[in-house]
Write a structure and sequence with these properties.
- The chain is α/β, with parallel strands linked by helices.
- The protein folds into 2 domains: about 1-105, Formyl transferase, N-terminal domain (Rossmann fold); about 115-220, Formyl transferase, N-terminal domain (Rossmann fold), CATH 3.40.50.170.
- It contains 6 helices and 10 strands, in the order βαβαβαβαβαββαβββ.
- Strand 8 and strand 9 (about 200-205) form a beta hairpin.
- The longest helix is centred in the C-terminal third of the chain and has 25 residues, at about 170-190.
- The protein is globular.
């Protein structure tokens, strides 16, 4: 961190920005000791930018289609994050695969949330995959980002029982409202307080190696 009592948080989005809104709310009411120094999107039409602008957050658009390749886009993204002096970089519905060089340059500062109980259902269409495979439970996972897609060490997972009437759209809404918007702000709060770290490829939580991901039972009051 930068030595200040507040972590500098950058949020990278591609879409609606609902996790961005949850993070912003948790910062506003004091649950996260951070301030959002920038919201970055690879899409100018991302709905989350409208929220960010209305909330007075600095917004930056880096249209990926304007870059000749993935490495060029990632270099521009890295430059923007360095200019913002981000302590924590939160991927919140960012629909791009990052290069290994980018990930390594921000190792230990880069968090992602994935809508499945990793290591199950990496990649896209996780809700349909959970139904197709007959899973009894579904949820979301916050993890540190490593070069392996959706393969970084897990921090916290939230899960629920899949109901008889759940379809993919219903599961998506349940995952977002009941899990993601609770566990992501909590993970960022821990990281901002320096209670959560990534060291030598492993998660350290409150000074001890985290051998299994935390759960909804570990949430602090208010999350």
């Amino acid at each position: 961190m930068n030595g200040s009592s507040f972590a500098r948080l950058a949020v990278v989005i591609s879409g609606r920005g609902r996790n961005l809104q949850a993070l912003h709310a948790a910062i506003a009411d004091g649950r996260i000791a951070a301030r959002i120094v920038g919201v970055i999107s690879n899409r100018a039409d991302a709905e989350g930018l409208a929220f960010a602008g209305a909330a007075g957050l600095p917004c930056f658009v880096l249209p990926h289609v304007e870059y000749r390749d993935r490495a060029s886009f990632d270099a521009a993204l890295a430059a923007q994050l360095r200019e913002l002096r981000a302590d924590i970089v939160v991927l919140a519905g960012f629909m791009r695969i990052l290069t290994a060089d980018f990930v390594r340059s921000f190792e230990g500062r880069l968090l992602n949330i994935h809508p499945s109980l990793l290591p199950r259902h990496k990649g896209l269409d996780t809700h349909a995959s959970a139904l197709r495979d007959g899973d009894a439970e579904h949820g979301a996972t916050v993890h540190f980002v490593t070069p392996e897609l959706d393969g970084g060490p897990r921090v916290i997972q939230g899960k629920f029982t899949i109901g008889a009437h759940d379809d993919a759209a219903r599961l998506a809404e349940r995952v977002m409202m009941d899990v993601e918007q609770r566990i992501y702000p909590q993970a960022v709060a821990w990281m901002a307080r320096r209670e959560l770290r990534f060291e030598q490829g492993s998660v350290v939580f409150r000074g001890r190696p985290l051998l299994e991901p935390l759960s909804l039972h570990d949430l602090e009051p208010g999350f």
